[in-house]
Design goal:
Rossmann fold, 2 domains, six-stranded parallel beta sheet, six-stranded antiparallel beta sheet, 12 strands
Length: 263
């Protein structure tokens, strides 16, 4: 899940908060599949009741209504590719103090209906026609909108250079790990680099520490030229550190777009 944050203290371009267009209405969606990704993150797949087209990187709002009429809603980034418009995937992390995520992890079942509206957002998006190279940096469930871009890249048989630098606490905490490894093993235009912060790396070329400027400088050398656009998504501290590392490694601040949790 990614929420849209306010301006950063560093000169990068945060995804701005914008009013939801009137044409975007709430609709009923049905859970058609549940897939546990890691100990704390589970993917929920939804069948929309109305046509649903979106761009990679956009998000939706989910609304739950209790029997007493109380409503809670939360924004979640779409993890599925735009080509899968009839099957919307949201990778939801369980937050013990949350109002919405415990419902999905503890109550929701296949066949349940919820309310959803979207797609929302036009700033933190990428499509193959936009070109590249593209650098993606994510941490934890911040990989969700980046995964939509990666899947769109694969579905387009794109030759646009794209590299994902993904931070996780452990090998088991890497969301979409097997799918990302499979994309990387094709040795095409997509490259995956993992940085595991609490374990030693398991693959050559991966890292075993937190992201910093020297790491980012090394990562940039794996692209054929400086990135046309860099997308960074994760917690506030991660986005700040990753964005500063990009700038320290020579990436133009105006080419960096971010989304942050917890705002």
């Amino acid at each position: 899940m990614a929420t849209r944050g306010a301006s950063s203290v560093i000169p990068v371009t945060d995804s701005p908060k914008s009013p939801i267009p009137p044409a975007i209405r709430w609709q009923k969606v049905t859970i058609n599949e549940i897939d546990k990704r890691t100990q704390s993150v589970t993917s929920f797949f939804f069948t929309p009741s109305q046509p649903f087209s979106f761009r990679a990187g956009q998000h939706v709002e989910v609304r739950l209504t209790a029997p007493n009429g109380y409503r809670a809603q939360r924004a979640y980034s779409i993890a599925s590719a735009p080509e899968s418009r009839d099957n919307i995937e949201l990778a939801i992390e369980k937050l013990e103090t949350g109002e919405v995520s415990p419902f999905f992890h503890e109550v929701a079942q296949v066949g349940d209906e919820i309310e959803l509206r979207g797609p929302i957002g036009g700033h933190f998006v990428w499509q193959n026609a936009d070109g590249g190279p593209i650098l993606l940096a994510g941490a934890g469930s911040g990989v969700a909108p980046l995964m939509s871009m990666i899947r769109h890249h694969a579905n387009s048989n794109s030759d646009v250079p794209m590299l994902l630098l993904l931070s996780a606490r452990s090998w088991e905490d890497v969301i979409f790990r097997d799918e990302l490894l499979a994309f990387d093993e094709k040795k095409g235009a997509f490259k995956l680099v993992l940085t595991i912060t609490r374990e030693a790396p398991k693959r050559d070329g991966d890292y075993g520490r937190r992201i910093d400027t020297p790491m980012m400088g090394e990562i940039l050398k794996r692209l054929p030229s400086p990135p046309k656009r860099a997308f960074v998504c994760g917690s506030n501290p991660f986005v700040t550190v990753a964005s500063e590392a990009l700038i320290g490694a020579g990436v133009e601040p105006g080419s960096i777009r971010t989304e942050r949790y917890g705002q």
